[in-house]
Structure formats: C-alpha cells, structure tokens
Write a structure and sequence with these properties.
2 domains; 229 residues
Length: 229
Amino acid sequence: MKYKGILLDIDHTIYDYNTVHKKSIEKLLQLTQNETGKDKSIICNSYMNARSQINNELYGTASSHNRLLYIQRMLELLNLNSMNLALKIYDAYWDTFLNEMNPYDGVIEFLDSCLGTPICLVTDLTVHIQHRKIETLGLYKYATHLVTSEEAGREKPHPYMFMLALKKLNLNAEDVCMIGDNYRKDILGASTLGIKSFWLNKDDKKENSDNELIQEFQCFKSLKGIVNE
C-alpha cells in the first residue's frame, strides 16, 4: 500500500540508542571523576538517583528526560557546586552521543525509497536535542515535519502526539502509517487512533495482539515495497 504520509520514531528506531547511551554515560562518569576526584561508582549511583528523582518529579513531560537536570541534581547529591560543572559534563555527554550515532542498516535506503512522501518525526524528549540528532543522522533530507513531547506537552502514547502529527501533515489516520520500536508508546499509541503501525521488533519480543493494524518487522530492508508501494 502506498501511504500519503509516514510517522516515524527516532530513538531506538533509527539507530542503536542503548549502545550510544552507554558510551556517553561512561564519558559523563569519567569526566566527573576527573573533575571532582569522586569515586566513579559513587558518581554513577548519584546519577541514577538524580535521574530517578527528576523522572518522578516531572513525569509525563519532556523535561523529565533532560540530561542537564540529571547532571545538575547529580552534582547536588554529591554536595558539589553544580554551577561550575553541569554544562561542561552535559556537553561532553551529548558530544559523545552525537559522535557515536549511526543509522541502522537499511534505514537510509528505506528513506531514499520514500522520497516524495511527507514524513513527520514523532518523538519524546526536547526539540533542541532532537534537532541535533536529526542533523547528525542526515534526516533533514527526508523529514518534512517534527513533533516532540516538548511541543505537544504530552508524551507518547498520548493521542495528542499523533493527532498533532496528522494535523501538521494535513492527513487523516487512514492515510498514514507509524513506524517505531516501542510497542506501548509507538505502536499501541498510534493504532488506537486507527493508524497502521509497523513495529520494529529487533529483539523478538512477544506481545499478545491480534490487531490487524499492527505488523512486525525486524529490519528496514523488509519495509521496502510494503510502506511505499
């Protein structure tokens, strides 16, 4: 089927988020140790506690994912002056992250085959860092619109995320498909609105669903000819 538009997730879907994040966290921990002399295990525990606190305090908002808030709180938990180091550590995390990002095999070929079809990137997190990822991954060539949870004021699977994407594309639910890796956030969120959803299931997870709007795939090469022809 030829869709008039495509909704596309970024993190975990376009590239290997977990591997990139792991390397970036290691950079964050090492730099913090170098700057403060604190034991790396103590820094790591403080970061995880900070992340948990911010997530709980700002649940459901884009700010709950803000690494600068995590780092600021981490330094405060370590009884350090966050004003001296937070931005430096934050920049080191994201510089490492962006340098390590590469699209999954088949992603660019698939997007090349979709040229001419409007694509709206639908993603949690803040607009600034998502634009930096889009630029690094070369997605500006393909994407025509962007919806972030910062703009929407909600996170996936809230229907407003997808409704805003449809509004930007000026299309109806039956005109588009959703492509994403998170079954609950991307796939159920979109299919609940009647959007055909393609679930990137690289880890062969099991979900109980007989929804005809949901179709699994394990690599982008297998989507060619299904989404765009």
